[in-house]
């Protein structure tokens, strides 16, 4: 069943990945939005041609999915990577999980292209988020993925303190095209007053309590890496002609044959709904 969820009524990321699959055997999706990337994960939950990797707040928090134990189904078993985090994670502790997990995925999965969702609601001070990343901590994730020199498509995501989202996506766009905007002054415009009182291209962390202990992060990192090592190395697909332009109607018809493989897991989201949390 197809339905809108959150603030999304079209899954543009899934459409983008489907297009990339016309030219690449394997595509990696990396999501640093504070919310679990449930829609993209669900779309590719039974295939090994797309690996999804989501770093997100987990617990009594929308959408309630993304348990570390949710790793895919059928051919997609172990190709969904979920990194469940707690409130207040900062630059240093986020990096301690992000880099080793992504490094192992790159080494083992060998994607031909990467789609990176740069949700700004993982920034410090977001109105709906609960993480404590600075602009530079957030951008360091983009920089790390870019360092592998693999074709990369960057997309936006959540972000509800708009001035900080604008700052961060401007800075990260600069990173993507090789422009260092660190020392750039904000240009005067009709919205200049929104960026006071500092009027700088910066989003600092604050003194929020970090509930992610070193022991907890080491345990989830070790479990994820162990899962990655137990899957086949760089799965391949048989060489074939590049198909024509993507047609939504054809794709929906093809989905019917996969109905028997539908994921019947009772997700954490359903549990939260039954508890009246969502």
Automatic annotation (TrEMBL):
One example GO MF annotation: metal ion binding
UniProt biased composition (Basic and acidic residues): 262-272
Coiled coil region boundaries: none
Span of domain Histone deacetylase: 3-171
Enzyme class (EC, first level): hydrolase
Keyword Hydrolase found: yes
Enzyme Commission identifier(s): 3.5.1.98
Transmembrane region(s): none
Entry's Gene Ontology BP terms: heterochromatin formation
UniProt-annotated binding residues for a divalent metal cation: 33, 35, 121
Region Disordered, annotated ranges: 254-278
Alphabetically ordered keywords of this record: Chromatin regulator, Hydrolase, Metal-binding
Protein name as annotated: histone deacetylase
Source organism of this protein record: Rhizopus oryzae
């Amino acid at each position: 069943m197809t339905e809108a969820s959150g603030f999304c009524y079209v899954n543009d990321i899934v459409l983008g990945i489907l297009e990339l699959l016309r030219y690449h055997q394997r595509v990696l999706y990396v999501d640093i939005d504070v919310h679990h990337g449930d829609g993209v994960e669900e779309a590719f939950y039974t295939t090994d041609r797309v690996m999804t990797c989501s770093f997100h707040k987990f617990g009594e928090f929308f959408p309630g999915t993304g348990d570390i134990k949710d790793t895919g189904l059928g051919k997609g078993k172990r190709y969904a990577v979920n990194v469940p985090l707690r409130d207040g994670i900062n630059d240093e502790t986020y990096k301690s999980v992000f880099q080793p997990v992504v490094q192992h995925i790159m080494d083992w999965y060998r994607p031909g292209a990467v789609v990176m969702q740069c949700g700004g609601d993982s920034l410090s001070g977001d109105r709906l988020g609960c993480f404590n990343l600075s602009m530079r901590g957030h951008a360091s994730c983009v920089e790390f993925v870019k360092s592998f020199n693999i074709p990369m498509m960057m997309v936006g995501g959540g972000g509800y303190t708009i001035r900080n989202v604008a700052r961060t996506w401007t800075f990260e766009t600069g990173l993507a095209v090789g422009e260092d905007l660190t020392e750039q002054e904000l240009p005067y415009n009709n919205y200049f007053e929104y960026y006071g009182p500092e009027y700088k291209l910066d989003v600092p962390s604050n003194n929020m309590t970090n509930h992610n202990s070193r022991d907890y992060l080491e345990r989830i990192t070790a479990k994820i890496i162990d899962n990655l090592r137990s899957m086949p190395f760089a799965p391949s697909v048989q060489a074939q002609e590049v198909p024509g332009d993507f047609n939504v109607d054809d794709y929906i018809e093809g989905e019917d044959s996969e109905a028997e493989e539908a994921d019947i897991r009772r997700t954490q989201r359903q549990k939260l709904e039954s508890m009246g949390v969502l």
